[in-house]
Amino acid sequence: MSDSNKLDIIIKLLLNLIKDKEIEPYPSKELLEIEGFESLYNTMLELRNAVNFISRGEVGFEITKNGYLPDVVKSLQSSMKNLACYIKAVSLADFSKKIDSKGEIADSFNQMTKQLESIFNEISNLESEATEAKEHFEQIFSTSPETTVITRLSDGLIVNVNQVFCETFGYEMGEVIGKCPEEIGIYKDSSDRQKMINEIKTKGYCKNLKAILRKKGGESIVTLISAKIIKLKGIAHLILVVRDITLRNKLTDALNKSEKKYRLLFENAMEMITVFQKGKIKICNPIAEKITGYCRSELISRPASYLIHPDDKQRMIKEHTKLLKGEAIDNSSSIFRIVKKDNTIRWIEMKSIKIEWENEDATLNLLSDITERKLAEEEIKFLSYHDQLTGLYNRRFYEKEIERLNNDDKYYPLSIIMADVNGLKLTNDAFGHIAGDRLLVSISKILKRKCRKNDIVARIGGDEFVILLPNTDAEDARSIINRIHEAITNEDTENIVLSVSMGLAVKKDVFDDVHDVFKKAEDNMYKYKLSKSENMKKKTIDRAIEKLYKNKIEAQHSKNVSIICGAIAYELKLNPDQIKNIKIAGLMHDIGKITIDEDIINKPGKLSKEEWAIVKRHPEIGYHILNTVDKFSEISKFVLEHHEQWDGSGYPKGLKENEISLQSRIIAIADSFNDMTIERPYKKASTVEEAVNEIKQNAGIKFDPFIVKVFIDKVVKKIQRTYDN
């Protein structure tokens, strides 16, 4: 091969090393024999491989050759290693690394680093602002005065609600968060939500979409819903603001409807509807005439404040002014008084909203007459210091007053009268609780009537009263007591006996303990009560007997039973006192019937279960009446047991045989015998023989068999002459 050919081949190989992607791995043997060729070829091949690695971003290829060109590639490789290190630092937000060498790459990298640092700082600031904005959003959301809800766009799942939502709809947060509208049934018409979604998809938002929503209890409210899409963690959500326009909607709908429908509502509304503008009444409905007493023609263009009670006028003007300015007022409704045309005062509750009337600001107002409600509230307030039955002051008021009077010496001497109604329990037992209430009311009226204007009369217990007499000494207090006793004596009452025990004590100066004075008055009252109580109870029983004997059949029956009881007791060899007591017991055995209605006693047909239960109580009532008086306490037991039966089937206790007192067993036979032989509205009288046969058949069942034998053998013949006559 000539030298010229070798040179051409060498040049071609070197060009291939530079230009071609694929090269032959080894040159020919002839070329390798040329001096210096192999070293040159290997150096160029190593540089080619190094550059190839660098072009792929790999800087770890080892260059073994020396010389200017290999050193340049090594320098490039080193620079690339430093650049990779700097880029890694920048990726970790470390912008402190700078390339100190000159050149376009260094300048470009340093400029890029500077820009990246600026961008990073801007992003950090944006993130900080976003966090702060999120906190502000959450604060606005939770404190918004409007009902606010966040739901997932896809299915309406409720993500969050504010407190106003809970107050408006009556739910706790835990009852709605995490649930879809369908689960809680908040939309009355489920298509309303779909309408909202369609509008949002078209516009990106919706504003003042009307929908009827339901509260927790099912109550429907009319609302306006405004909504907008927001992103939470990359997921589309809706933030909804819901405004309850139920009241406003009713009013504005009424005003916006046709004249006919508007007039029908306006003219027939049970609430007064008015428009106030520039301090005057512009329009009002007919009910205004009833509420105010003025004709509508008199009201129109009259100052609205003209009707308001002077004590309420400034407050109402101030509230109305704030409403017109759009400022918040303390309450959703205002309560005030008006003065009617006839000068009577009525309480009014008014609800108002700001409207536009004939292109100017005005208020639409609903006025309700709440006088009855206010009177009821006053009644409740009255009852908090007054006794409901008598109308006198109660214990609560008394305790406040006694402290007030006790701490001020200008009220000394302070007399205290303790009063106790005699025989209240007996009256209740004998004539019923209505009669007992009548007794208390009668006594209360006398106490109030006979005391002076500034005296304090209070009912502090069931039958206990106290009278506080400021600036009253013992002599004047006794004079009041005497007036009360005189009035009670002269009081005409049916059936019930009026009687009061009173005791007096006086607080003369600051050194007297008022509680000790009260105790002394109470002790004096009890001393008086001991001396008068028995006499009063005897009078009450006399009244009870008089009432019973107004029924002639019952009167005759009681006398007959008394006679028969006496006859049986005589044949049983009882002593005179026992015979006397059983005759009294026979006379009073049905005293408990005074509490039973005459219609039940004289009922011609069979008694109902409830009526029979009432009748069966008369032995117990008779016992309680008689047991209150010492002289009748023994016979009260005989009265209690006179319907017990020998076999234990009687009432009220179900006693049997000798468990029943002897006297009660006697009364049982006498009562049954006489009851059979007298005519009553519901039955004819049996003959003596029929009655005796009935008694005989029930010996050992209802009646004591021994007493039955004595009655038939020794008593019937004697009393038959009385019946024959």
Describe the 3D structure.
The protein has 725 residues and is of the alpha+beta class. The chain has 5 domains: 3-87, no CATH class; 144-244, PAS domain (Beta-Lactamase, 2-Layer Sandwich), CATH 3.30.450.20; 249-375, PAS domain (Beta-Lactamase, 2-Layer Sandwich), CATH 3.30.450; 386-536, 2-Layer Sandwich (Alpha-Beta Plaits), CATH 3.30.70; 551-724, Hypothetical protein af1432, CATH 1.10.3210.10. The protein contains 29 helices and 14 strands. The chain has a 5-stranded antiparallel β-sheet, sandwiched between helices. Strands 7-6-10-9-8 form a 5-stranded antiparallel β-sheet. Strands 12-13-11-14 form a 4-stranded antiparallel β-sheet, sandwiched between helices. Strand 3 and strand 4 (220-232) form a beta hairpin. Helix 21 crosses helix 27. It starts with a helix and ends with a helix. The model has no long low-confidence stretch (mean pLDDT 84). Its EC number is 3.1.4.52.
